[in-house]
Amino acid sequence: MSTDRITYVGHATALIELDGVRVLTDPVFRPRLLTVIVRQHPEPDPGIAERIDAVLISHLHHDHLDFASLRRIGLEVPIVAPAGAGRVIRRRGFEQVIELGTGQATNVGGLEVRATAAIHDGRRHKVGPKVDSAGYLLGSGTRMVYFAGDTDLFDGMQDLAGDIDVALLPIAGWGPKVGSGHLDPRRAAAAAAMLRPRRAIPIHWGTLLRFDLGRRGDELLHAPARRFVAQLAERAPDVEAIVLEPGESLDLSPPA
User: pLDDT by residue (tens digit) across 29-38?
Assistant: First the structure.
C-alpha cells in the first residue's frame, strides 16, 4: 500500500502523494532565479521529479513557473494551470496543459483537482494580458489537501472549509517583507482560522533569498515559520502547525 505523504521541497514546491498519485506544485529546483534570487539549500533530490502524474501551476511568476525545472520533469507530464495560462506554457513545448477556471476540476489518476480562487496578480510580467492565479483542492476520497499558491486573504476561504486534512499556506517570500496579494504569518494564520484544516504546513519561506540580504539570512529564512506557529496558536488553536524544513516530509496518519 502506498504511503500518503507531503514533502516540502522548498518555496512553493511541494510533492503531494495521495493514493499512489504524485503531484508537484509550482516546481522550482535550480539554485538561482532571475540572477538575484539564490536558493539557500541544496537542490532537491532528483527523485522528487520522477514518476510525476501531474504538475500544478498556481500562476506565471518566475518563482512559481520555472521552465527549466519543468523540463526536468518531462515535456509529456500534464500541467494544470489557471485559465489563460496555457498559451505561455505551450509555447515552451508543453502540450498537455489543462486550464481550469475557479471551481472547475480535472481528474489525475483518480485524484480530483479543483481550482480555487486566489487574490494575486498572476501575469508573467508586470505588463501583458491578465491571467488569474489559482489555488487547488486535491481530493482522493479519503483525504483533502489545499494548496493556496500565492494569495492574499479573502472572504471566500470560508467557503472552502469543511474537510481539509492539510492546508499548504504561503507565509513569506524571498525578501524582508511581502506586499498585497500575499500572506504573511499573521494573515496565513487568519486564513487557517477560516479554512479550518486539521493541519497547516507553511510554505513559501526558508528557501530563496535575495543575494544582498545574506547578513539577515537567518532572520529572514527562519523567523516567518516561528511567527506563523505563534499566530496559529492564537487565532486557530484547533489547527495543528506542521513546520517542515525544505526536503522534509510528513507521512499522513490514517484518516479518522
Answer: 999 988 889 9
Pick the CATH number of 5-251 from 3.30.450.20, 3.60.15.10, 2.40.50.100, 3.30.2350.10: 3.60.15.10
Residue 130 and residue 36: Cα distance in Å, rounded? 26
Query: What number of other Cβ atoms are within 10 A of residue 134's Cβ?
Result: 31
Is pLDDT above 80 for 71? yes
pTM, full prediction: 0.95
- Report the number of secondary-structure helices (H) and strands (E) in the chain: 5, 17
Domain ranges of the chain: 5-251
Sign, CA dihedral 49-111-246-178, equals: positive
Share of the chain above pLDDT 90, in %: 77
Residues 24, 66: Cα–Cα separation, whole Å: 13
According to DSSP, the residues that pair with 79 across neighbouring strands are: 55, 97
**At what angle are helices 217-235 and 185-195 packed, to 10 degrees?**
30
pLDDT tier at 122, thresholds 50, 70, 90: low
From the list 124, 153, 6, the residue with the least C-alpha distance to 58 is 124
- Per the listing, cell 499566530 goes with 231
Q: Using CA atoms, how far apart are residues 57 and 105, in angstroms rounded to an integer?
A: 14
